[in-house]
TrEMBL record:
Any one GO molecular-function label of the UniProt entry: 8-oxo-dGDP phosphatase activity
Protein name: Nudix hydrolase domain-containing protein
Residues of the signal peptide: 1-24
CDD domains given in the database record: NUDIX_Tnr3_like (cd03676)
Length: 370
């Protein structure tokens, strides 16, 4: 018992001296607090707010750009030889994993429907070339026949069977336009949950909610709800969402701001478009090519976001420098694509600049070619 007491006493003395040393150098320990609509409590009664994170004000250490570079590379890693092109009327729109294409083919044979056509990958007879194959739509569903909605219904009705059987996951009940480029007429309206399986381009909006303060610019960060199907509990932009069919980018920004953070429409309408981040990487479901349209929105110092739609656990305001160091040192705490948007914000604010190692390579990986 005496030994335990002595150990405890020595630890307390060490802790007190450490805190005193931090104060002498102007360092602070920051506790992340919950700004959600209500406190989140686990079953064991513990508060499920933000993790305690130590932040050093005025810290001028070089950012860990090796971590940033590795993360950017991870979100741009794939092998097209693992996939089969998905095309409509000779225009490639996506990629299917070979295993998923085989499941679709088996389902079509089972249901005796005429929705897809299948050309399987093969080598030429002399072995000099490789043909990647193709999954397309049956001629009955091409432009000379049904309208867009009829074609889309045929595709979505077939794949819904796989969702009902548990062979696909993530049905959303929302439609996304599938086209060869953003703002081009859609060739298909695809259930949003199918998008990663078909490897078609997906789009979203991410809003950096900023506050101008005496010490510099701060950014509101969201912690995703623990009930989210994807990346529960990860850090995210204050406002972010997929781009649905039928809304403009500006309309979607205003809608997401109000739903996710309680930002009034007249304030959200002042969000400024500042570019886009794009990437493509392989997932268990398929190939994921995405473009995120980035916006900056300045709010008053006394504004506190409110989680209204249940998708956010809590919010935390912090200097951009601290948020960026969190990405550099603990990128696994972040939703992967939201970390890219944070890197883009740091570059635009000069926090990550050409004096940092790996700067140009990181910069190039934020904009996918093709």
């Amino acid at each position: 018992v005496k030994m335990k007491c002595r150990t405890t006493t020595l630890f307390c003395i060490f802790l007190a001296e450490s805190i005193a040393s931090c104060a002498a150098f102007g360092w602070k320990v920051r506790v992340w607090r919950n700004h959600g609509s209500r406190p989140k409590v686990n079953r064991d009664g513990r508060h499920n707010g933000w993790k305690c994170m130590a932040s050093v004000h005025g810290d001028q250490r070089v950012l860990n750009t090796e971590n940033l570079l590795d993360h950017c590379k991870m979100l741009n890693s794939y092998k097209t030889t693992d996939f089969i092109p998905f095309s409509i009327e000779s225009e490639q729109l996506g990629w299917l994993r070979k295993e998923f294409a085989t499941r679709l083919h088996s389902l079509q044979l089972e249901t005796k429907q005429k929705v897809f056509t299948f050309e399987w990958p093969q080598c030429s007879e002399d072995g000099s070339s490789f043909m990647p194959g193709n999954v397309g739509l049956h001629e009955n569903l091409l432009s000379d026949h049904p309208q867009l909605h009829d074609r889309s219904a045929a595709v979505n009705d077939m794949v819904k069977v796989l969702f009902e059987r548990g062979e696909m996951r993530g049905w959303r009940g929302e439609l996304q336009q599938v086209s060869s480029a953003f703002n081009k007429p859609p060739a298909l309206l695809l259930e949003r949950g199918c998008v990663p399986y078909f490897g078609v381009a997906a789009y979203g909006v991410h809003v950096n909610v900023l506050v101008r303060e005496e010490r510099g610019t701060s950014v509101w960060i969201a912690k995703r709800a623990l009930t989210k199907a994807t990346y529960p509990g990860k850090l995210d932009q204050c406002v972010a969402g997929g781009q649905p069919q039928g809304l403009s980018l500006t309309e979607n920004v205003v809608k997401e701001c109000e739903e996710e953070a309680g930002i009034p429409q007249q304030v959200a309408a002042t969000a400024r478009p500042v570019g886009a981040v794009s990437y493509m990487y392989a997932t268990n479901k398929g190939l994921s090519p995405k473009t995120l349209f980035c916006y900056d929105l300045e709010v008053p110092r006394d504004f506190v976001p409110r989680a209204l739609d249940g998708e956010v656990d809590s919010f935390q305001k912090m200097p951009i420098e601290e948020a960026m160091r969190s990405v550099a040192d603990q990128v696994d705490m972040w939703k992967p694509n939201s970390a890219l948007v944070m890197i883009d914000l740091a570059i635009r604010h000069g926090i990550l600049n050409g004096d940092e190692p790996n700067y140009l390579e990181i910069l190039s990986l934020l904009r996918r070619k093709g």
